[in-house]
Amino acid sequence: MKALLPGPPPRGREDDGTGLSLLFNSHQNAVERKSLQMECSLPLFLGGGPGWGALLCLLLLSGCGPREPVAKKPAATEVSAPAPAPTIASAEKPAARAETLSLLGSVRSAGQAALSVRMPARIVAVNVREDDTVRKGQLLIVLDAQEIAAQRSTAEAGLQAALAQLRKAQVGRSAQKIKADADVANAQAGLKQAQAKAQQAVLARDAARDDARNELVTAQEGVRKARLGLERAQETLRGLEELAKVGGVSRNDLEGARAQVAVAQSDLQTAQAGVRRLEAGPEGSSASYRVALAQKDVETAQAGVRQAQAGVQAALEGRQQALAVADQDVRAAEAAVAQARAGIAGAKAAESLARLVSPLDGIATDVNAHVGETAQPGLPLVTVTSLSGLRVEALVPARQLPRLRVGQAARITLDAQPGRVFPALVSEIARVAEPDGRTFRVRFRFQDKNVTVRPGQTARITVRER
């Protein structure tokens, strides 16, 4: 059987310089050799004996023997041979693959805490070094509490002084209020008294006016009666004079009637003079004089009322100003008390912070504390970075941003761990550009929550667009 096996088939054509003809011929020879082996083993598979197998193999070998050599074709003919088929396949294959976006980023932590002091304090112990693993509640730095205790004592003394000043201000306000209220009450009482005097003066004036009016009416009535008496006397005189012409009246009766007329005229003149005197004013009668005096009393009383009203207004304004000043003193004292209490609270908080402990699990970074130094407020002594919730952040140019979307799959590799690939997803795409105005921050979340990476490591990100 070894003699019956065919040798390697001859090459159909030589390499044309591109390497494609050699690749195609090698592939064809391998296929022919495999077909021959299958044909030679077919009789055995069908259950025939060894003789039958040898006969069939002999017959098949006669057809699978060496082929006649093929004459070489010109170079132009070799280029047009079926070899270009692999070239077409290799050109179409990259178009079928999904495009990828490569980014460079770094591992970031989701939680970080910087420990510092609120008040200056001397460092007496540092129990942590950079890159140490720490636990939540672990004591990291111990501060000198003596200075803090002294500051607390000073704050407590300041509180007592502020409380004393507050009590003094409150007492002063109460005294000012009592005095101002008394001034207002006295002014209001004076106003009431002036108003009562004015009312009495008005009543007296009205009474004097009524008296003067009644006196004038009486005088006018006297004028009327005197006129009537004169008219009767004149009428009697005229009657007697007519009788005297005929001798029917004595001379004495006639003279008596004339005397009555004279008296009536005198009474009328007297009554008219009294009326004119009363109508002339205060100088004419005592009643008019009393009216004038009463009017002056009314004017004086009304002036007193106006003065009393001004006194009440001044008392009210003085009360308001005095209480405003007192309230300002009270507020200032209350502010001093609040400030002192805040100082005490700060000192107590500083005492509690004399032992700085880690607020979370992680690693210690940026340890800037040394024994003997004085820690200053606002300057971090130790920074603790959490190792949970790690993510990768990268700055992506704006022109590449449309190629990313939240939830898109990504592969992350780390320079510190060559050969390892970490599956991840796009978790967040910033809506606002970075200060440079050209890039946007993109975050990637590890699909495995227990990845063994460290913050700050450089990460290479590959995102498949489809």
- The proportion of residues forming helix, as a percent range, comes to 55-70%
Label the structural class.
Answer: alpha+beta
Describe the main β-sheet briefly.
6 strands, antiparallel, barrel
| Count of DSSP H/I helices | 7
The side-by-side strand order for the widest beta sheet comes to: 1-10-13-12-11-14
Principal-axes geometry comes out as: rod-shaped
- The poorly predicted ranges are 1-96
What fraction of the residues are assigned to beta strands by DSSP?
15-25%
Number of strands: 14
CATH topology of the largest domain: Helix Hairpins
Rounded to the nearest angstrom, the distance between the terminal CA atoms is: 56 Å
CATH A-level architecture of the largest domain: Orthogonal Bundle
SSE succession: HHHHEEEEEHHHEEEEEEEEE
Q: Tell me the number of structural domains.
A: 4
Mean pLDDT metric: 77
Topology:
Layout: H1 20-45, H2 50-64, H3 75-79, H4 84-96, E1 100-108, E2 112-115, E3 121-126, E4 133-134, E5 139-143, H5 145-245, H6 251-280, H7 286-352, E6 355-357, E7 362-365, E8 374-375, E9 382-385, E10 391-397, E11 409-414, E12 417-429, E13 439-446, E14 458-464
Helix pairs in contact: 1-2, 5-6, 5-7
